[in-house]
Write a structure and sequence with these properties.
The chain is mainly alpha-helical. 60% of the residues lie in helices and 10% in strands. 19% of the residues are buried.
Amino acid sequence: MSSVATRYEHIVVSEDQAPTIAGTGMKVVELVAEKLAYGWSPEELQFQHPGLTLGQIYSALAYYADHAEEVDDDLERRLQFVDRMRRTSPRPALLKRIRKES
């Protein structure tokens, strides 16, 4: 998969147009989602993702700071997709049994 460098040292844009931390599979939107959901500091994000350096994390957060609307839109699309899947997918039999027995 090829990618395009950005002006952010550790951020590339993948073929699917997703800003990604170079050399990893971590998309900027995924890291931002964790920061927003849990309120994690860059140091906590690095603790949770020991394969990432603080430089990579700060670069992803800098990218987000400059492209917040674009990343927020991507995050919203992802959340809507998950919501749609939850509503339209059949519940697994095991989950049905667990919830019925509880």
